[in-house]
């Protein structure tokens, strides 16, 4: 995610509109047609504005305790028709419950909880993570 960790800051990433445009440009440059967007943690600042504006361009969405879910309303989430797998570890007691509370308004969602996993559930329980992810991907059209 630009501007986090050791990555250089990107000026357009300062606003939700800019972050949405940045992600749109990345997908365009990679010539991606209806990808499944997997969004852990800080990447929610990019993925959520994109999902709400262009969810129809995604085949699926997999939020993993993303940040920024409280920045949008239940009505905004209800308008999104993108199939979604809300995935998190049951030991993530900080961000995951808040994300679930907001993301559960997405009408086409499923929830997968990884037992014994924390915030980085894909690192804590990689086999269970991949099993849940592959199960979701198989049911997409």
From TrEMBL:
Localization of this protein: Cytoplasm
Principal location: cytoplasm
InterPro entries according to UniProt: AB_hydrolase_fold
Record carries keyword Cytoplasm: yes
Record-linked SUPFAM superfamilies: alpha/beta-Hydrolases (SSF53474)
A GO cellular component annotation in the UniProt record: cytoplasm
Coiled coil: none
Keywords, comma-separated and alphabetical: Cytoplasm
Protein name (database record): ABHEA protein
